[in-house]
Design goal:
Layout: E1 22-24, E2 30-32, H1 33-39, E3 52-53, H2 59-62
Amino acid sequence: MLELRPNCECCDRDLPPHTLDARICSFECTFCSACADSHLQGHCPNCGGELVRRPIRPAAKLQGAPASSERVRNPAGCRAAH
C-alpha cells in the first residue's frame, strides 16, 4: 500500500492525500509537481526513475489506511537525477 508521504522532498511543500500535485517514483520518493517538472525534469533524483502522478486514496479509505505523517526532506534541496 502506498505511504502517501505528506511533503515534497525538495521544497517541503505540503502534499495532502487528495492533491493532484504529488509525483512519486516506484520507490515512493515524493515531490510536488513544480519540483518534479522544473528541477527534476520528470526523473527521481534518488533512483533515476520516472516521476508520475500519485494516485488519490478515496477519503472513505483514509480512516482505515491513513496517509503517512513522516516527513522526508533532502536538506540539499532539489538536484537533477543522474
